[in-house]
Amino acid sequence: MSREPSSNPALDLRDLPEGAPSLLPPALDQDDAAVLDAAPAPPRRERTATVLLMLLTAIAAAVMAFALRGEARYAVTSGQPQEIGDLATLQPGSDLANRYVRASGLLGTHGAIRYGRAAEGDSFRLAPIAGNPRILVEIRVPEGFEGPRFVPPTTFAGRLVPLADAGVRHVGLADTVRDETKVEVPRDAWILIDGSSPRASRWAVALALLFVAFAGWNLLGVARLLSRVRDQEEKPLPAE
Predict the structure, then answer these.
(1) In sequence order, what are the residues at sequence separation of 6 or more whose Cβ sits closer than 8 angstroms to the Cβ of residue 23?
(2) More confident residue, 84 or 33
(3) 129-185 pLDDT, tens per residue?
(4) In the prediction, which pLDDT does 19 show?
(5) Signed CA dihedral, 86, 154, 173, 142: sign only
């Protein structure tokens, strides 16, 4: 009686002698199946936590980049200051918002405060212009020069911007003035940041781009994780 040739010429199980060990995997018994059933499920919670953390990080980075938009735009403006004259009579409009200007004026003492910033040795003074409380001026006092002998300047050159749009470094400044001096800062107040030239503000451009890149990198990572999960769920099971 002839035998039909095997479809696999390299290996024919019918040619094996009797008693030879089987090359096929043994069937799972009940104990092995119970072990597999008790194995931990894929780390879905960890994956979900990773996705949520990356999304939160991307949102935070995008918010920081958005908060720096004003200073970043100012950094790419003209490097020549615009003469605007006496601040006591100035009523700024949108044409002067976020511009590099040069002006003069006397600083008042009613509603003036002094403060510092972390990691900076210099101190800062914020004072309204005498006769025009709508205009505030921030001046930097070099370390070691603060004291009763310090004479504030009367000519200023820097960034002129509405106080509400000044950026993250000036958030809550109106509340600080109110808490320390009991003076209410006008809601439409403007601030002239003395010494802040467009060239000196280029750090804001680099930092904003860094936050944008960081947000994009996290969003790309989330997209890859979700696409991998989708591919695993849509992958057909092997036929038995």
Answers:
(1) 13
(2) 84
(3) 999 999 999 999 988 887 777 888 999 999 999 999 998 889 999 999 999 999 999
(4) 58
(5) positive
